[in-house]
Structure formats: C-alpha cells, structure tokens
Amino acid sequence: MSIRHGLLALLEGGPRYGSRLRTEFESRTGSTWPLNIGQVYTTLSRLERDGMVTQKEVDEAGHDLYAITEEGRAELRTWFGTPVDRSRPPRDELAIKLAMAVGAPGVDIRDIIQSQRHHTLKAMQDYTRLKAQALADGPAGRAEVAWLLVLEQLIFQAEAEARWLNHCETRLVRLAEDAEAEPPVAESLPATISPAPSTADRPHARN
Predict the structure, then answer these.
(1) What angle do CA 96, 151, 46 make, to 5 degrees?
(2) How much of the chain exceeds pLDDT 70, in percent?
(3) Cα gap 150→158, rounded to integer Å
(4) CA quadruple 18, 24, 28, 30: dihedral sign
C-alpha cells in the first residue's frame, strides 16, 4: 500500500493539514489500513523534501496546510497509469505457514487448513454484512463509494482464499490416497558373490 501516493491523491482535491489527511485516508478505505499521525507527517516531510508537496498558508485554526506541486501531480498521474506489479508478490504468511507445515513432524496440516478456513469464512461473512449495510444506507458520496470498493475487494480476496484452502485439502487427501495405493517395496536380497577360486583350483602357470 502506498501511503505516499494516497496522500498525494487527497491533496489533489486541495490543501489539507495532517490530521485531516489521516481522517480522509481512513474514510476512503474504511479504516482497513489505519494510519497513525506520525506516519502522515513523516510521509509529508519526505514528499516536501522530494518537491511533491509544499507548505502553504496556515488556516484559521492554526493548522499548517500542505498543497500538491506540479511534480506531485506528475508523480500521481504516473502512479494511476502504472499497473500494480504482481511479478514480485508480497510474502503471504498463510502460504508460508502451509509450505512449512508440509512434512513437519508432529504437525497435522489438515488441522491448520480447517482452522484457517473457519477464520476466513467468518471474516467473509463480516465483510458481506458490512457491504449489505452500506448498500442499504445508500452510498452518499465518494468516500462511501471508495469504502464499498475496498470492502468488495476484501470479500473477493476471502472467497479466493477459501477456495485455495479447499484445493490444498483436496490435494493432500489425493497425495495420501496415492501413498496408500503404492505397493510396498520388497527388500532386495544381496547378490550372491562367488567365492574366489582356491590356489588348488587355479591353473598352474607354465614355466
């Protein structure tokens, strides 16, 4: 997730101060990725250093306002126009856990799958309930529509994870069945070694 570009996108709508940027960011994403105010000001400081934003005037309440620069707008357009890189996916803890559980002594990977599937399905139900509530209330503005898009992405992600867990369980069952179906390997007997001929049996060399 790019906090840097998210703040630039919000500043495109006009000058804002730090805590308002934090509030609007969380409103757009439904607090799915909460920010602390330190992250916001650290990012703003780096954006200002890189010429992407500049400090403007102070508002009536004494807040320091930040505004996007032309360099920041160019950076934002590039971000919007560039596909998210999927060639180097981030580490997925669940995938790593299952990969390490395969063959680990004393670990039943099926228990891990069942436990995770229960958690994933519950999360999906919670997301679906929130979506139904959002649709019933009716999206009133851009922030609500943005939150609905994020919410639906979480639902699709949970559905995909549940299908993948089912696939993992099916594969493990199939591997276990194949292992049981293989005939036991017979122990091969050592080859009989002919004894070396005695000296009496050896032909005498002619002088």
Answers:
(1) 75
(2) 84
(3) 12
(4) positive
